[in-house]
Amino acid sequence: MDQKLNVTSLSKQVYDYLHEQMNKGAVLPGSTINIAKFAKQLGISKTPLRDALIHLEFEGFVTILPRRGVQVNQLTLKDVKNAYALIGALESAIVYQCFEEFTAEHISRLEELNAKMLELIKANNFECYFKSNLAFHNVFIDLSDNELIKKTILPAKKRLYEFPTKIYISEWEERNCAEHQQLIDCIKEGDRNGAASVLRDVHWSYDAQEEYIIRFHAMRGEEIDQEYANRDK
User: Membrane-crossing residues (predicted)?
Assistant: First the structure.
């Protein structure tokens, strides 16, 4: 991590750099960041690094511990449940509010991306799959002119998808594509309430997806038993 950063928009560059390190696996959940050491490695002052870390703390990625450094947070089941509730509420609200703006081109794009995702699952190309998945959701998110909603959704999704993993559940991803098709069918049929419900009550419902979420965490070897037992408390 000895890469030097330019001065322009330095805090933003540091923020992006830290996200890149998370994606590469150079910064892992449970690790700590020594501000002084990290700033020296990057060849910057502590101020832009602190600004970037404050942003990351707001998004839930880290916890700043006074005089002890910065802890990179583990993603807990409670975090996942909260993120699902937030994303489901906001995406369903966008689809409901912007429903009249869907055109044949939007529907065609949704169908194209969903078909591509199914092919990527068969090819075990999950890196491209997740990029296509984000693109699918962005088709209707981009219909909204509510920038606050869009800026809120993105960090929540980053929180779910950050940090690399080679573990995937093909059955779950295929089910996600089936849910995408339900959404497309509702749009085609002019069913505004149904389209919103697919996103809120199925696709982003923790309860509906809980079996796969638990399996995913277990496959990663994470200690979830106690948290799972207490999830409704």
Answer: none
